[in-house]
Design goal:
The structure holds 3 protein chains of 3 kinds.
Chain A: H1 9-12, H2 16-48, H3 58-71, H4 74-99, H5 107-124, H6 130-159, H7 163-182, E1 206-208, E2 212-213, H8 215-232, H9 234-244, H10 246-251, H11 256-283, H12 294-304, H13 309-333, H14 339-352, H15 354-361
Chain B: E1 13-22, E2 25-35, E3 40-44, H1 51-58, E4 66-71, E5 74-76, H2 81-86, E6 89-92, H3 104-109, H4 123-136, H5 152-165, E7 170-174, H6 182-197, E8 201-206, H7 209-215, E9 218-223, E10 226-231, H8 238-246, E11 264-274, E12 280-290, E13 294-298, H9 305-313, E14 320-325, E15 328-329, H10 335-340, E16 343-346, H11 350-354, H12 361-365, E17 376-377, E18 380-381, H13 383-396, H14 413-425, E19 431-435, H15 443-458, E20 462-467, H16 470-476, E21 479-484, E22 487-493, H17 499-508, H18 519-522
Parallel strand pairs in B: 3-8, 3-9, 6-7, 7-8, 13-20, 13-21, 16-19, 19-20
Antiparallel strand pairs in B: 1-2, 1-4, 4-5, 9-10, 11-12, 11-14, 14-15, 17-18, 21-22
Chain C: H1 3-12, H2 15-56, H3 64-85, H4 99-125, H5 130-152, H6 170-173, H7 179-186, H8 190-208, H9 210-220, H10 222-227, H11 232-258, H12 270-280, H13 285-307, H14 312-320, H15 323-341
Helix pairs in contact in C: 1-14, 2-7, 2-8, 2-11, 2-12, 2-13, 3-4, 3-5, 3-11, 4-5, 4-11, 8-9, 9-11, 12-13, 12-15, 13-15
Classes of the chains: A mainly alpha, B alpha/beta, C mainly alpha.
Chain lengths: ~375, ~525, ~350
């Protein structure tokens, strides 16, 4: 995606609307289809649960609750933003890896270790002035995630160990490491359950409503920063070059191994900030079961956004809203919150099958839109194998 | 068309009015071709003239839009390779269709397996048949050898055996000599004549004029998808064929002029290097290239040329020896350091190594210099400078594209290579390293690039040219080093070099022992 | 965690002594745990075989984990539905076989084959990135099984039970020297026991049969295979689907042989560890099986150490490490092996590359 659309004189003549449509047609259609399929799933689920009256309107009730819980009032909207924040970081992390041809499935582990770093430093500086405690705790999260990303990156560069398998292993190791530390040295003495102390002054301050914390702003800044890094700097050029063709990059004097390590480290660090934003912004303490579905969600976000840093924000808000509204949906419609996982999976499946969708959509796609023919421009088949 | 003196028999193969269109091009335009039993029929044309498309039609890999294929006078519809094989048509592709990690026997059996029962292969029977077939055509082959360890000449024999194992009556060979030494070519020609003598029909695709004149019974020339003439070797010569093939009178060889070599620029001493698996491929190479001369390295592929170039250019750590440029030691320097020392490099495979196809032409033009002024200031890229420079290069090097911001993948092969050349040539150079700079290009682009190379030489650049195409090395080089078994075994004067002498050096390393076979083969023995 | 104990322990004893103790521990532990090791190796070996089948033909299948998880869920949930229909029959004499259990197994395998077909369609026909396709299958399997499990488990239903292990006569298992080997291979449930046969069969299939030869050719050089008339696309479909069959068996093992219930995410990375076993076994069925046994050994030891650490200094050191870190051992080992072996292990040349027919160009 190096050809800047606006610079091409032929493209400039097309209307803005058709250009927007050419880029958004597939994601929008995919989401709509997923919503319809989700409704069907809700209806089928009713049949599976015995002893309940069948209600054709249940999907509407469920979706209504989902929307109300995510957008219905200022608190809901803030909740959506809070839920989206780690997804922005995570989506940026995975997307940044994609740009270099690396599939970082380890966002989950990096998320956990990032949070671990933040809680260790946060607890240590709980009584220090916020102006010192917050940056240092966040930095610790950044570094923690970075270390967890560096290991697979290093192994890939040095020995060729595929990052997909090693990052997943790192996820499992992170879970055990976290459990060992939280029930060991980090545990509040005499507490009945394994839990750490509160991070105190290191917590992100609340800027919006009841729980809209600083992390929201940081996430937006991060998205802008990653965009700038990728498209305006020489390092970003190297990352994209290595992702598109590592051999040619090496012949041109770049060092793909170094870039692989750097990319994985930075990607891990971004995922670490996702964990940091949850820990310093929401939970303030860590239990041995700390952890969410942010790891998987981040992959979904990055794929839906086609790795573009700014589109990542939009995709993250979509999934963040679903997470935010899921609770109300469960209460109103007795549909498990896991329906969101199903919806997400369905969106991804439709997305990866989008070549078929494109053929169907061809009639409504403006003729001669080259972009619409390149589903995931930086994920050419085989690049990751 | 038929010579009245010849007996009239139904042609083994006839293609009538074959037309095949691809978006934007007519690859084949009403092509007629007729091959008689026992005939070696050459199909002559430039790269991109439509030879391969025509053969894909014959082999069922492409469906013609118009026209028909007749075998023994009967019209047939060939639905795919399996169908073609069943009808006795076999093809030896330009890039061998062999699986390197499988054995000779497994490669030959593939798709036409000799079975012991419903489930398992009958290896013994297969081996026996393969050895017998080889003997019938004059060579001994080991069915258990891994194909990847054979020399290209022997791989070609495996390809031919593959066809014979399937009882092919019509054998199509697509540029079979592209990677062979002259001696290996002679050996394959002997095998082909023997095949024709047994009644097989052979379609011999080539763009090499002298070869076609040597082997063919008849020659059909195609240009831009059309048949432009049919000749018998006795009634024609190279100039006539060249004019037919290209459509205008061509200078077969670009006038290289006289070189004025000055002081040595590149000096390589005792260089050794190993391949990725640790086998030593370069065994103590010494040579120098002077300013204002083209030094060509000729050699059969796999004799250490790749590793030599990579060791010089910094892509591979030499295990011993020294490389100096203008007297400065650059051994083990990185590609970027060499680039900054005014060394340019055009890699062999432009798709894999030369370009990033999904990037714009402008970005490809700064692929080696993106990080320095004027294209970047510190970490920040300067799009304006990049675009301005791209516009100039596109103009100067005649890269045909609607916009410098179009993706490199939208360019034709010739224009892609021009982009690489534009990037590497467009500055002051001390040393220029070219690895097969014109492989697979059309005559126009080849001529353009050759002229650029000579212009660079005349401007005082030292040029190192590595190519498996002996013709190209002979055409351009002022001096030629022959590489064999990881050494430069001889250095000869370019303008006066004799092709057969060089070919013999390439094949044997200069040891006058007729029994010596290719070293690649001996590794497995 | 008692760091001082650890430090003292390390300081006070020579390394050689520890080494002897480790060897002694292994000699003591392996024979008595052999059936468990073989049992634990079963899903790894089956999943690795699935990987071998796919990758030998050129398709990377990272979705094995999800395929197994879906199969495990299916085996259990079909039991929930079917068992009452047949009046919850008592376990049969051999392997505790009942009709509902067989139905569960068939259903699990069918679902796994279906999911594999989806992967084949996405990665072979649509030429989507194979790793993304596999990852999405993992995410989808996790999401859908989690959702359905939440939906159903409110009524805490029971499945169809589980297969039982065959008990070879004690005269055989008590034989000196080889007795434990007999126990290892025959004191097993039906899935584990058939795995050995399957592995041997697969090895012969890959290197001696027509299909096997074609598979190897297609994974190395698909165009060459097509030029001799082999239908690359069809062969890849067949291999990926057959691979799904074995992944399905491995998944069913989780919920109707090793246990009799389903837990969310119960595959716990086995599908990925299997990929490491496949690489370490150099893409051969027997090699993958051997690696799977090694992983299972470590899995077993990491559990054993928590329950019954060996006596002496070794035990002191071992029990001073937090239990969670022993749980992480198989994963750490996978990374180490991947990093140590992968450079020397050469994958099929066309692995992961979608194939486009020449004619389509």
């Amino acid at each position: 995606m190096t050809a800047q659309p606006a610079r091409n004189p032929r493209r400039g003549r097309r209307s803005a609307a058709s250009r927007i449509w050419s880029v958004t047609a597939v994601p929008i259609t995919v989401v709509v289809l997923a919503v319809l399929l989700g409704a069907a799933i809700v209806l089928v689920s009713e049949l599976l649960v015995p002893g309940k009256k069948f209600d054709w309107g249940l999907p509407l009730v469920a979706y209504g609750a989902l929307v109300e819980g995510s957008l219905g009032n200022p608190d809901a909207i803030i909740s959506t933003m809070v839920n989206s924040t780690p997804l922005v970081f995570g989506g940026l992390a995975v997307g940044f890896g994609f740009k270099a041809g690396l599939f970082n499935i380890g966002a989950q582990g990096q998320f956990l270790v990032g949070a671990l770093g933040a809680v260790i430093v946060g607890v240590w500086l709980a009584d220090a002035p916020a102006i010192v405690a917050i940056p240092l705790a966040a930095l610790a999260g950044f570094i923690g995630g970075g270390i967890w990303g560096f290991v697979p990156g290093f192994l890939k560069a040095v020995s060729g160990a595929h990052e997909v398998v090693s990052t997943i292993m790192m996820n499992y190791i992170a879970v055990q490491l976290l459990a060992a530390l939280v029930s060991g040295p980090l545990k509040v003495p005499k507490s009945p359950s394994p839990v750490t102390f509160d991070v105190g002054n290191a917590a992100y301050p609340i800027l919006l409503g009841r729980n809209g914390h600083l992390g929201i702003v940081l996430a937006l800044l991060a998205a802008g920063f990653v965009w700038w890094l990728l498209y305006r700097t020489t390092w970003g050029f190297e990352v994209r070059s290595v992702g598109a063709n590592p051999d040619a990059s090496r012949y041109a004097g770049m060092r793909p191994k170094l870039i692989t390590m750097a990319t994985m480290t930075f990607s891990g660090a971004l995922a670490g900030l996702a964990g940091t934003s949850v820990l310093l912004g929401v939970t303030h303490t860590m239990t041995s079961s700390f952890g969410t579905t942010v790891g998987f969600d981040s992959i979904a976000v990055a794929l839906l956004a086609r790795s573009h840093p700014l589109a990542t924000v939009l995709a993250a808000v979509l999934f963040g809203a679903m997470r935010a509204g899921a609770g109300l949906m469960q209460i109103r419609a007795q549909i498990p919150v896991e329906l969101v996982d199903v919806l997400q999976a369905v969106i991804l499946l439709f997305l990866v099958a989008s070549p078929v969708l494109r053929r169907v959509l061809h009639a409504v796609t403006p003729a001669g839109v080259p972009d619409a023919e390149a589903p995931m421009p930086d994920l050419k088949p085989g690049a990751l194998a | 068309m038929t010579d009245p003196a010849e007996p009239i028999i139904a042609p083994a193969l006839e293609m009538r009015g074959i037309t095949k269109r691809y978006p934007g091009v007519v690859a084949n335009d009403a092509i007629d071709l007729e091959v008689r039993p026992g005939e070696i029929h050459a199909l002559l044309g430039e790269n991109g003239a439509g030879k391969t498309t025509l053969m894909n039609v014959l082999y069922g890999l492409a469906t013609p839009d118009e026209g028909e294929v007749l075998l023994d006078g009967k019209a047939v519809r060939i639905t795919g390779p399996a169908d073609a094989i069943a009808r006795g048509i076999s093809m030896v592709h330009q890039h061998f269709m062999l699986v390197p990690v499988l054995t000779v026997a497994e490669n030959i059996l593939l798709g036409e397996e000799t079975m012991a029962n419903r489930f398992f292969l009958d290896r013994k029977e297969a081996h026996r048949r393969i050895v017998d077939l080889g003997r019938r055509f004059g060579f001994e082959i080991d069915p258990e050898a891994k194909v990847g360890s054979l020399s290209v000449g022997w791989q070609q024999r495996v390809e031919i055996l593959k066809a014979l194992y399937r009882n092919a009556r019509i054998l199509v060979l697509d540029e079979p000599t592209a990677v062979l030494t002259p001696q290996e070519t002679d050996e394959i020609f002997a095998v082909l004549r023997r095949l024709a003598g047994e009644g097989h029909s052979i379609v011999f695709i080539s763009h090499k004029l002298y070869e076609v004149l040597e082997i063919a019974d008849r020659i059909t020339v195609i240009r831009r998808g059309r048949v432009v003439g049919e000749r018998k070797p006795a009634d024609t010569d190279e100039d006539d064929l060249a004019e037919l093939m290209v459509g205008r009178e061509v200078q077969l060889v670009v006038d290289r002029g006289v070189s004025h070599p000055a002081a040595p620029v590149l000096n390589v001493q005792g260089l050794t290097a190993s391949d990725d698996r640790g086998h030593q491929m370069v065994n103590g190479v010494d040579f120098e290239v002077r300013a204002g001369e083209i030094f060509g390295i000729a050699g059969v592929a796999g004799n250490g040329q790749d590793e030599l170039v990579e060791a010089i250019i910094g892509l591979r750590k030499p295990t011993a020896g020294r490389v100096t440029i203008d007297g400065k030691d650059v051994t083990g320097h990185s590609p970027r350091q060499l680039n900054e020392a005014q060394v340019a490099y055009v890699p062999a495979d432009r798709h894999r190594f030369g370009l990033i196809l999904s990037f714009s032409i402008a970005d490809n033009l700064v692929l080696t210099s993106y990080y320095r002024a004027p294209y970047a200031h510190g970490l920040l890229r300067d799009r304006e400078a990049i675009d301005k420079d791209a516009a100039t290069s596109v103009e100067r090097f005649d890269i045909r594209t609607p916009s410098p911001n179009a993706r490199a993948s939208t360019l034709s092969g010739g224009n892609q290579q021009k982009a690489v050349v534009a990037r590497e040539f467009d500055r002051e150079l001390k040393l220029l390293i070219l690895d097969q700079p014109t492989r697979g290009l059309d005559v126009g682009s080849i001529e353009f690039i050759h002229r650029q190379v000579i212009a660079k030489r005349d401007a005082g650049t030292a040029v190192l040219l590595v190519s498996a195409e002996l013709d190209e090395v002979l055409e351009l080089s002022d001096r030629i080093g022959v590489m064999y078994g990881g050494r430069i075994v001889a250095v000869v004067d370019g303008p006066t070099a004799d092709k057969n002498d060089v070919g013999l050096l390439m094949a044997t390393g200069g040891e006058r022992d007729p029994g010596t076979r290719n070293p690649a083969l001996e590794q497995t023995a | 965690m008692d760091i001082t104990a650890l430090a003292n322990g390390l300081y006070g004893i020579p390394l050689l002594g520890i080494l002897f103790q480790i060897v002694g521990f292994l000699i003591e532990v392996i024979p008595s745990n052999a059936p468990n090791i073989m049992n634990q190796a079963t899903p790894l070996a089956l999943a690795a075989l699935c990987g071998v089948l796919c990758e030998r033909s050129g398709v990377v299948n990272i979705g094995i984990e999800g395929t197994m998880l879906a199969a495990a869920f299916t085996a259990w949930v079909v039991g929930v539905a079917v068992n009452p229909m047949f009046g919850s029959p008592a376990p049969g004499p051999i392997f505790g076989l009942t009709l509902p259990l067989v139905i569960c197994l068939v259903a699990a395998v069918l679902v796994a084959v279906l999911i594999s077909t989806l992967h084949a369609w996405l990665s072979i026909s649509l030429r989507a990135d194979q790793i993304i396709s596999g990852t999405i299958i993992n995410i989808a399997a996790f999401g859908v099984t989690g959702y359905l499990d939440q939906l159903i488990s409110k009524s805490s239903p029971a499945g169809a039970g589980s297969f039982a292990a065959f008990t070879p006569p004690t005269e055989l298992t008590d034989l000196p020297v080889i007795g434990w080997l007999i126990a290892m291979f025959f004191n097993q449930g039906p899935i584990a026991m058939s795995t050995i046969v399957i592995i041997v069969g697969a090895q012969l299939w890959l290197f001696r049969s027509r299909w096997g030869l074609r598979t190897r050719a297609v994974g190395e050089h698909p165009r060459a295979a097509e030029t001799v008339g082999i239908d690359v696309i069809r062969l890849r479909y067949r291999n990926v689907m057959l691979g799904g069959f074995f992944a399905g068996l491995g998944g069913a093992w989780l919920s109707i042989e090793a246990t009799n219930s389903f837990q969310i995410g119960m595959t716990t990375g086995r599908g990925f560890i299997a990929l490491a076993a496949m690489i370490m076994g150099r893409w051969t069925p027997i090699g993958a099986f051997g690696s799977a046994l090694l992983f299972a050994l470590f899995l077993q030891i990491s559990q054993l150490i928590k329950i019954a650490p060996p006596a002496g200094d070794l035990g002191t050191i071992m029990s001073s490490v937090p239990a969670q870190l022993w749980d992480a051992l198989p994963y750490i080992l996978t990374i180490v092996i991947l990093a140590g072996v992968v450079g020397r292990s050469i994958p099929p040349a066309a692995d992961g590359q979608p194939y486009e027919r020449e004619a389509a160009a």
